[in-house]
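Fold this sequence, please.
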Amino acid sequence: MPEGTADILVIGGGVIGSAIAYHLARAGHATLVLDQHAPAAPPAASWASAGGVRRQGRDPAEALLARRAIERWPTLEQELGADLHYRQHGQLLVAESDAEAAELITFVAQQQAVGFSDVRLVDQAELRELVPGLAPQVVAGSFSPADGQADPVRTTQAFAAAAQRAGARYWTETRCLALRIAGAKVVGAETTRGEVAAGQVVLAAGAWSDELANGIGLSLPIRTAVYQMLRSTPAPIGLLGPVVSALGRRLSLKQLVDGAFLLGGGWPGDAMPDRRGYALREESIAGGWAAACGILPAVGAQRVAAAWCGLEAESIDDVPFIGPAPDWEQLTLAVGFSGHGFALAPAVGQAIADQLAGGQTPELEPLNPARMAGWDSASVAQFRADTP
């Protein structure tokens, strides 16, 4: 196939785009991936992800997709032929008061109602078995045993490598300048490497997807969010198994394979005006560190070793838009993952490949981009103007 042609063009080589490319190439489609840098390069979300692999706490619209993704993760390392630093030690959401413990009762019932039947309440005794070093004020928890964590950079690069082994081509350090259209069809793209002609186009460019969509008059109800991550100096290994979050705090806390703690939870940074970089906020660094120390005091014996941010596309209803683009033929969207797309990547890749082949994809029905019509232009403009 000539260099500038493809059956399917995927714009964006992050974990979502590369998972899509992998499944498309494995199904025999001539697939070309464009990435403005390289897979999992800063400041993309796939580089800065917290690496949580969870179902617990998902919006009901994502529930079926999340279930299918979690089923894939235990065998994904073998499938991709790479060490993803995947560990299935569960995810623990903790309460620090009787009022929050009462909230967990309702929360667990909601989790079970959407099909996460193994999610359960845990009392103080079991909490300390799961995480012996929890702060004394932690009184209850919701535990999802099938959840876990993985390394986002390793995972993104593994999907990209597997996609290329299956025949996908990658144009890295290549910016997509505009989508090419013919009537109501999207037929390719203009890039810094030349024109690309494609039978189908998948837009999975993360925080930069709106620029390309705007170029064809498609207004996506997404905005750029900047999420901070902190990494501590290495602590003794084995202090923390599950991923821990808290009802009353911005927190996602993990211990990595080298013993370092990884702290997330949505603490904000700031995007540069051109959205090609970011600036940290000192108050977010202090707030994120305090949140972790308040739940697991052992974190306080360490210090912050590194801090960084990633740029993420946040959707107006906090769940992604996945599927055919409204009013445009041959264009599929996979955008707006709102800081929690990493775990979904294996299922998103499979579902997009199935959908483009004409298969049934019930897991994508609640995420259909057709729901964009539910917001008027003034509401979308206000959403974009508000700082996350």
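The longest helix spans residues 98-113. The radius of gyration is 21 Å.
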